[in-house]
Amino acid sequence: MILGLIDEAVEAGARQAKACEVIGLDARTLQRWRAQDIGDDGRAGPKHAPGNKLSAMERARVLAIANGPQYRDVSPKQIVPRLADEGVYVASESTIYRILREEKLLKHREPSKPPTERYKPKEYVATGPNQVWSWDITYLCGPVRGTFFYFYAVIDVWSRKLVAWTLEEVECAERAQAMIAAACEREGVDRDQLVLHSDNGGPMKAATFLAYLQKIGMATSFSRPSVSNDNPYSESFFRTAKYRPEYPKKPFESLEKARAWATSFVDWYNTEHRHSSIKFVTPHQRHTGEDVELLALRSLLYEEAKARSPRRWTGTTRDWGRVGEVALNPEDEAA
Fold it and tell me: What is the CATH number of domain 124-269?
Protein backbone atom coordinates (compact mmCIF):
# COMPACT_ATOMS: atom_id res chain seq x y z
CA MET A 1 0.00 0.00 0.00
CA ILE A 2 2.85 2.40 0.85
CA LEU A 3 4.56 1.95 -2.51
CA GLY A 4 1.23 2.18 -4.29
CA LEU A 5 0.41 5.50 -2.63
CA ILE A 6 3.80 6.95 -3.58
CA ASP A 7 3.47 5.75 -7.19
CA GLU A 8 0.01 7.30 -7.35
CA ALA A 9 1.30 10.62 -6.06
CA VAL A 10 4.21 10.64 -8.54
CA GLU A 11 1.90 9.86 -11.45
CA ALA A 12 -0.27 12.80 -10.37
CA GLY A 13 2.74 15.12 -10.68
CA ALA A 14 4.24 15.14 -7.18
CA ARG A 15 7.96 14.77 -6.58
CA GLN A 16 8.95 11.42 -5.12
CA ALA A 17 11.01 13.04 -2.35
CA LYS A 18 8.06 15.17 -1.22
CA ALA A 19 5.71 12.18 -1.31
CA CYS A 20 8.13 10.21 0.87
CA GLU A 21 8.41 13.13 3.28
CA VAL A 22 4.63 13.36 3.69
CA ILE A 23 4.32 9.65 4.32
CA GLY A 24 7.24 9.60 6.77
CA LEU A 25 9.64 7.57 4.65
CA ASP A 26 13.17 8.38 3.52
CA ALA A 27 13.61 8.45 -0.26
CA ARG A 28 16.74 6.28 -0.03
CA THR A 29 14.80 3.69 1.94
CA LEU A 30 12.22 3.60 -0.84
CA GLN A 31 14.97 3.05 -3.43
CA ARG A 32 16.41 0.20 -1.35
CA TRP A 33 13.01 -1.49 -1.04
CA ARG A 34 12.48 -1.35 -4.78
CA ALA A 35 15.96 -2.69 -5.51
CA GLN A 36 15.60 -5.57 -3.02
CA ASP A 37 11.98 -6.28 -3.98
CA ILE A 38 11.07 -6.95 -0.35
CA GLY A 39 7.39 -6.11 -0.56
CA ASP A 40 5.24 -3.15 0.20
CA ASP A 41 6.44 -1.81 3.56
CA GLY A 42 9.85 -2.90 4.79
CA ARG A 43 9.72 -1.06 8.08
CA ALA A 44 9.99 -3.58 10.88
CA GLY A 45 11.57 -1.52 13.65
CA PRO A 46 10.38 -1.33 17.27
CA LYS A 47 7.06 0.35 17.96
CA HIS A 48 8.21 1.78 21.29
CA ALA A 49 10.54 4.70 21.96
CA PRO A 50 14.25 3.79 22.30
CA GLY A 51 15.56 3.45 25.82
CA ASN A 52 18.23 6.10 25.32
CA LYS A 53 15.78 8.77 24.18
CA LEU A 54 16.11 12.12 25.96
CA SER A 55 13.38 12.78 28.46
CA ALA A 56 11.13 15.82 28.13
CA MET A 57 13.08 17.52 30.93
CA GLU A 58 16.45 16.80 29.25
CA ARG A 59 15.14 18.03 25.92
CA ALA A 60 13.88 21.24 27.55
CA ARG A 61 17.30 21.73 29.15
CA VAL A 62 19.02 21.42 25.75
CA LEU A 63 16.69 24.05 24.30
CA ALA A 64 17.19 26.36 27.26
CA ILE A 65 20.98 26.17 26.93
CA ALA A 66 20.98 26.60 23.13
CA ASN A 67 18.63 29.60 23.36
CA GLY A 68 20.28 31.16 26.39
CA PRO A 69 22.19 34.44 26.13
CA GLN A 70 25.56 32.66 26.43
CA TYR A 71 25.09 30.17 23.58
CA ARG A 72 22.33 31.47 21.31
CA ASP A 73 24.82 32.92 18.82
CA VAL A 74 27.06 29.84 18.50
CA SER A 75 26.58 26.47 16.84
CA PRO A 76 26.23 23.13 18.67
CA LYS A 77 29.79 22.35 17.56
CA GLN A 78 30.87 25.25 19.79
CA ILE A 79 28.34 24.63 22.57
CA VAL A 80 29.38 21.04 23.35
CA PRO A 81 33.12 21.67 23.94
CA ARG A 82 32.42 24.85 25.91
CA LEU A 83 30.06 22.95 28.19
CA ALA A 84 32.66 20.20 28.51
CA ASP A 85 35.19 22.78 29.75
CA GLU A 86 32.67 23.65 32.48
CA GLY A 87 32.21 19.97 33.38
CA VAL A 88 28.74 19.78 31.84
CA TYR A 89 27.40 17.26 29.31
CA VAL A 90 23.80 17.43 28.07
CA ALA A 91 23.86 15.83 24.58
CA SER A 92 26.01 15.30 21.52
CA GLU A 93 26.32 17.81 18.68
CA SER A 94 24.15 15.70 16.39
CA THR A 95 21.43 15.40 19.03
CA ILE A 96 21.39 19.17 19.63
CA TYR A 97 21.25 19.78 15.88
CA ARG A 98 18.35 17.34 15.57
CA ILE A 99 16.40 18.97 18.39
CA LEU A 100 16.95 22.47 16.98
CA ARG A 101 15.93 21.26 13.53
CA GLU A 102 12.73 19.71 14.89
CA GLU A 103 11.92 22.96 16.68
CA LYS A 104 12.71 24.95 13.52
CA LEU A 105 15.43 26.90 15.31
CA LEU A 106 18.20 26.37 12.76
CA LYS A 107 18.93 29.36 10.53
CA HIS A 108 21.84 30.31 8.29
CA ARG A 109 23.41 33.36 9.97
CA GLU A 110 26.72 33.81 8.16
CA PRO A 111 27.16 36.58 5.57
CA SER A 112 27.83 33.88 2.95
CA LYS A 113 24.94 32.57 0.92
CA PRO A 114 23.21 29.53 2.43
CA PRO A 115 23.72 26.23 0.61
CA THR A 116 21.28 25.76 -2.24
CA GLU A 117 19.80 22.38 -3.00
CA ARG A 118 20.32 21.55 -6.66
CA TYR A 119 18.03 19.03 -8.25
CA LYS A 120 19.22 16.71 -10.98
CA PRO A 121 18.03 17.69 -14.47
CA LYS A 122 14.99 15.95 -15.86
CA GLU A 123 15.61 12.72 -17.71
CA TYR A 124 15.21 12.82 -21.50
CA VAL A 125 15.11 9.62 -23.54
CA ALA A 126 15.88 9.66 -27.26
CA THR A 127 14.58 6.85 -29.47
CA GLY A 128 15.81 8.32 -32.75
CA PRO A 129 17.85 11.15 -34.23
CA ASN A 130 17.03 14.84 -33.70
CA GLN A 131 15.12 14.35 -30.46
CA VAL A 132 17.72 15.36 -27.86
CA TRP A 133 20.78 17.51 -28.60
CA SER A 134 23.58 18.42 -26.24
CA TRP A 135 25.93 21.33 -26.78
CA ASP A 136 28.87 23.01 -25.14
CA ILE A 137 31.89 25.24 -25.83
CA THR A 138 35.51 24.35 -25.12
CA TYR A 139 38.69 26.44 -25.22
CA LEU A 140 41.54 25.88 -27.67
CA CYS A 141 44.81 27.64 -26.89
CA GLY A 142 45.65 30.54 -29.19
CA PRO A 143 49.03 31.85 -30.39
CA VAL A 144 49.40 34.32 -27.48
CA ARG A 145 49.47 33.08 -23.90
CA GLY A 146 46.07 33.67 -22.31
CA THR A 147 44.16 33.91 -25.62
CA PHE A 148 41.80 31.21 -26.83
CA PHE A 149 39.67 30.06 -29.74
CA TYR A 150 36.21 28.73 -28.90
CA PHE A 151 35.00 25.40 -30.28
CA TYR A 152 31.16 25.25 -30.29
CA ALA A 153 29.79 21.72 -30.75
CA VAL A 154 26.25 20.27 -30.88
CA ILE A 155 25.91 16.49 -30.40
CA ASP A 156 22.88 14.38 -31.22
CA VAL A 157 22.55 12.29 -28.05
CA TRP A 158 20.98 9.30 -29.81
CA SER A 159 23.37 8.95 -32.75
CA ARG A 160 26.42 10.77 -31.29
CA LYS A 161 26.68 12.66 -34.55
CA LEU A 162 28.07 16.19 -34.45
CA VAL A 163 25.12 17.93 -36.08
CA ALA A 164 26.60 21.44 -35.83
CA TRP A 165 29.85 23.12 -34.93
CA THR A 166 31.74 26.36 -35.34
CA LEU A 167 35.08 27.72 -34.18
CA GLU A 168 35.23 31.40 -33.24
CA GLU A 169 37.47 33.98 -31.62
CA VAL A 170 34.71 35.00 -29.21
CA GLU A 171 32.18 33.24 -27.02
CA CYS A 172 28.77 34.78 -27.64
CA ALA A 173 25.09 33.93 -27.95
CA GLU A 174 24.74 35.37 -31.48
CA ARG A 175 27.20 32.82 -32.94
CA ALA A 176 25.45 30.02 -31.06
CA GLN A 177 22.07 31.12 -32.38
CA ALA A 178 23.31 31.15 -35.95
CA MET A 179 24.81 27.69 -35.49
CA ILE A 180 21.58 26.22 -34.06
CA ALA A 181 19.47 27.85 -36.78
CA ALA A 182 21.63 26.36 -39.53
CA ALA A 183 21.56 22.92 -37.89
CA CYS A 184 17.75 22.95 -37.58
CA GLU A 185 17.39 23.85 -41.26
CA ARG A 186 19.92 21.23 -42.31
CA GLU A 187 18.34 18.46 -40.20
CA GLY A 188 14.74 19.46 -40.95
CA VAL A 189 13.81 19.95 -37.30
CA ASP A 190 10.15 20.76 -36.72
CA ARG A 191 8.66 22.86 -33.96
CA ASP A 192 8.36 21.15 -30.54
CA GLN A 193 10.46 18.25 -31.78
CA LEU A 194 13.71 18.70 -29.95
CA VAL A 195 15.26 19.26 -26.50
CA LEU A 196 18.54 21.19 -26.30
CA HIS A 197 20.68 20.48 -23.23
CA SER A 198 23.65 22.55 -22.07
CA ASP A 199 25.51 23.76 -19.01
CA ASN A 200 25.07 27.20 -17.44
CA GLY A 201 27.56 29.19 -19.50
CA GLY A 202 26.92 32.78 -20.57
CA PRO A 203 25.95 32.03 -24.19
CA MET A 204 23.68 29.17 -23.07
CA LYS A 205 21.69 31.34 -20.62
CA ALA A 206 21.71 34.57 -22.64
CA ALA A 207 18.24 36.12 -22.84
CA THR A 208 18.35 36.62 -26.60
CA PHE A 209 19.40 33.01 -27.19
CA LEU A 210 16.70 31.59 -24.91
CA ALA A 211 14.12 33.84 -26.56
CA TYR A 212 15.14 32.46 -29.96
CA LEU A 213 14.81 28.85 -28.76
CA GLN A 214 11.38 29.61 -27.36
CA LYS A 215 10.39 31.22 -30.65
CA ILE A 216 11.28 28.12 -32.70
CA GLY A 217 9.66 25.79 -30.15
CA MET A 218 12.84 24.13 -28.87
CA ALA A 219 12.75 22.97 -25.24
CA THR A 220 15.77 23.69 -23.04
CA SER A 221 17.48 21.68 -20.32
CA PHE A 222 20.40 22.75 -18.11
CA SER A 223 23.00 21.03 -15.97
CA ARG A 224 23.39 21.75 -12.30
CA PRO A 225 26.02 24.43 -11.64
CA SER A 226 29.56 23.01 -11.65
CA VAL A 227 28.35 19.44 -12.34
CA SER A 228 29.98 18.32 -15.59
CA ASN A 229 28.40 14.85 -15.35
CA ASP A 230 25.03 16.38 -16.22
CA ASN A 231 26.32 17.04 -19.76
CA PRO A 232 28.28 13.82 -20.38
CA TYR A 233 27.93 13.54 -24.16
CA SER A 234 29.48 16.91 -24.89
CA GLU A 235 32.21 16.39 -22.30
CA SER A 236 33.03 12.99 -23.77
CA PHE A 237 33.18 14.44 -27.28
CA PHE A 238 35.64 17.16 -26.27
CA ARG A 239 37.80 14.61 -24.47
CA THR A 240 37.93 12.50 -27.63
CA ALA A 241 38.89 15.60 -29.62
CA LYS A 242 41.73 16.70 -27.35
CA TYR A 243 43.25 13.25 -26.91
CA ARG A 244 43.47 12.34 -30.58
CA PRO A 245 47.04 11.93 -31.92
CA GLU A 246 46.31 14.68 -34.45
CA TYR A 247 45.54 17.23 -31.77
CA PRO A 248 48.50 19.66 -31.76
CA LYS A 249 50.76 19.65 -28.75
CA LYS A 250 51.40 23.37 -29.20
CA PRO A 251 48.86 26.22 -29.37
CA PHE A 252 47.17 26.93 -32.69
CA GLU A 253 48.99 29.58 -34.70
CA SER A 254 45.83 31.13 -36.13
CA LEU A 255 42.06 30.80 -36.30
CA GLU A 256 42.35 29.38 -39.83
CA LYS A 257 44.61 26.54 -38.69
CA ALA A 258 42.32 25.81 -35.76
CA ARG A 259 39.34 25.59 -38.10
CA ALA A 260 41.29 23.34 -40.47
CA TRP A 261 42.04 20.94 -37.63
CA ALA A 262 38.41 21.03 -36.44
CA THR A 263 37.10 20.33 -39.95
CA SER A 264 39.34 17.28 -40.30
CA PHE A 265 38.48 16.00 -36.83
CA VAL A 266 34.71 16.39 -37.24
CA ASP A 267 34.83 14.55 -40.58
CA TRP A 268 36.76 11.69 -38.95
CA TYR A 269 34.48 11.61 -35.90
CA ASN A 270 31.22 11.50 -37.87
CA THR A 271 32.21 9.20 -40.74
CA GLU A 272 35.14 7.04 -39.60
CA HIS A 273 35.09 6.73 -35.81
CA ARG A 274 33.39 3.50 -34.65
CA HIS A 275 31.70 4.58 -31.43
CA SER A 276 31.78 1.97 -28.65
CA SER A 277 28.43 2.99 -27.11
CA ILE A 278 26.48 2.46 -30.34
CA LYS A 279 27.84 -1.01 -31.25
CA PHE A 280 30.92 0.32 -33.03
CA VAL A 281 29.19 1.99 -35.95
CA THR A 282 29.93 5.56 -37.00
CA PRO A 283 27.67 8.38 -35.81
CA HIS A 284 26.76 9.11 -39.46
CA GLN A 285 25.71 5.49 -40.06
CA ARG A 286 23.48 5.50 -36.99
CA HIS A 287 22.04 8.94 -37.72
CA THR A 288 20.99 7.93 -41.24
CA GLY A 289 19.86 4.40 -40.36
CA GLU A 290 22.61 2.63 -42.29
CA ASP A 291 23.61 0.78 -39.12
CA VAL A 292 20.46 -1.41 -39.22
CA GLU A 293 21.68 -3.47 -42.16
CA LEU A 294 25.29 -3.30 -41.03
CA LEU A 295 24.55 -4.73 -37.57
CA ALA A 296 22.31 -7.43 -39.06
CA LEU A 297 25.16 -8.54 -41.33
CA ARG A 298 27.54 -8.65 -38.37
CA SER A 299 25.11 -10.89 -36.46
CA LEU A 300 24.79 -13.20 -39.43
CA LEU A 301 28.56 -13.37 -39.83
CA TYR A 302 29.02 -14.39 -36.20
CA GLU A 303 26.30 -17.04 -36.42
CA GLU A 304 27.97 -18.54 -39.49
CA ALA A 305 31.35 -18.51 -37.73
CA LYS A 306 29.84 -20.34 -34.75
CA ALA A 307 28.20 -22.89 -37.04
CA ARG A 308 31.55 -23.64 -38.69
CA SER A 309 33.43 -24.02 -35.40
CA PRO A 310 30.92 -24.55 -32.57
CA ARG A 311 33.60 -25.80 -30.16
CA ARG A 312 35.20 -22.38 -30.16
CA TRP A 313 32.07 -20.79 -28.64
CA THR A 314 31.11 -21.40 -25.04
CA GLY A 315 27.85 -19.44 -25.23
CA THR A 316 25.91 -17.20 -27.55
CA THR A 317 27.57 -15.04 -30.15
CA ARG A 318 28.32 -11.39 -29.61
CA ASP A 319 25.26 -9.18 -29.29
CA TRP A 320 25.15 -6.88 -32.33
CA GLY A 321 21.60 -5.72 -31.58
CA ARG A 322 20.93 -2.05 -32.21
CA VAL A 323 20.81 0.29 -29.21
CA GLY A 324 17.21 1.50 -29.15
CA GLU A 325 17.01 4.14 -26.42
CA VAL A 326 19.60 6.58 -25.14
CA ALA A 327 18.92 8.53 -21.95
CA LEU A 328 20.33 11.89 -20.94
CA ASN A 329 20.64 12.14 -17.15
CA PRO A 330 18.70 8.91 -16.45
CA GLU A 331 16.83 8.73 -13.17
CA ASP A 332 18.25 5.26 -12.59
CA GLU A 333 22.01 5.86 -12.28
CA ALA A 334 22.73 2.22 -13.13
CA ALA A 335 21.28 2.84 -16.60
Answer: 3.30.420.10
